[in-house]
Specification:
Tetracycline Repressor, domain 2; 2 domains; 13 helices
């Protein structure tokens, strides 16, 4: 049982919250009335979850030595020696194969998008994560592929404004993550991630400001776009903008005053303000589009 527990920790199922991006097209494309489409999106989300867990394990294997020097990551199952490298590699292989099998059942396009995700993450692990700016864009690309899997992958036309907003949000989270890692590195006196040597706080603060502003603007433009109003059947989605604005500002506050932000998924589950903001935004959006 301890092996299963350590394996689940290695898979990081709490990170699967990121795969809610797969449901973007289903929700905003008013496609939830089609049971076949709903089932396809659910399977696509499961496939992405399994693949992302496999990729996390591969990354942990690649980063084993640096993780052992990190104040928090050294507690991960591989870095702590709770799971053997060979066992972790086998688990990663099983997860990746299962992910592609499910994706192919959904649609070849979904499998193709998952393959792109795997290629990007392989390049990331092999060295692209050490290239400043590009490293964050590659992280954002993973989120964009999640949106595309749940839209173009299953036959739902994606909104261009929504795609652009998704890109800005994920870039914001990526640069905020690097800012949080830099804060920890400066406090510990060591930079466990090589790319942090090429970043500094003022530069990252500029990137965060640009992407946060762009995320708010593109979301606002999406809500008032005539096509959005036509599809959603309401001109009032603009009134959900304060939730988005507050959520981003709260995240920046946590980053600077609580030294948090290294793990966006964990932040979403641990900060009451962010939880309430997401639930409030979801409830109001659901009410408006129905």
């Amino acid at each position: 049982m301890s092996f299963v527990r350590h394996l689940l920790r290695l898979m990081r199922p709490y990170q699967w919250v990121k795969n809610l991006f797969v449901f973007t097209g289903l929700i905003f494309g008013h496609a939830w009335g089609n049971p076949q489409l709903v089932w396809s999106v659910v399977l696509a989300a499961i496939a992405f979850s399994l693949l992302s867990s496999g990729v996390y394990i591969v990354n942990d294997i690649a980063d084993l030595e640096s993780d052992r020097q990190h104040p928090r990551k050294r507690l991960r199952p591989l870095a702590a020696g709770e799971i053997a490298v060979i066992a972790a590699a086998i688990a990663a292989g099983v997860l990746i194969v299962a992910a592609f099998a499910i994706a192919w059942i959904v649609a070849p396009a979904v499998a193709a998008l998952l393959l792109i995700y795997l290629i990007i993450n392989t390049g990331y692990s092999l060295g692209l994560k050490h290239v400043p700016i590009l490293d964050v864009f590659l992280i954002a690309a993973g989120f964009m592929l999640r949106i595309l899997v749940g839209t173009a992958g299953v036959g739902i036309a994606p909104s261009q404004w929504l795609l652009l907003c998704g890109l800005m949000v994920t870039l914001f989270l990526g640069f905020a993550k690097r800012r949080a890692e830099l804060l920890v590195a400066l406090e510990q006196g060591t930079r466990t991630r090589k790319v942090l040597v090429q970043y500094d706080a003022p530069l990252l603060d500029v990137m965060i400001a640009i992407t946060a502003t762009s995320a708010v603007l593109t979301y606002g433009l999406y809500t008032v776009n005539p096509e959005t109003v036509r599809i959603q059947g309401t001109p009032y989605l603009i009134y959900t903008l304060p939730f988005v604005l507050y959520g981003i500002m709260r995240y920046i506050f946590r980053l600077h005053h609580h030294r948090r932000g290294e793990d966006p998924a964990r932040e979403l589950f641990t900060d009451p303000h962010l939880i309430a903001t997401v639930l409030g935004w979801g409830a109001v959006t659901f009410w408006l589009i129905h």
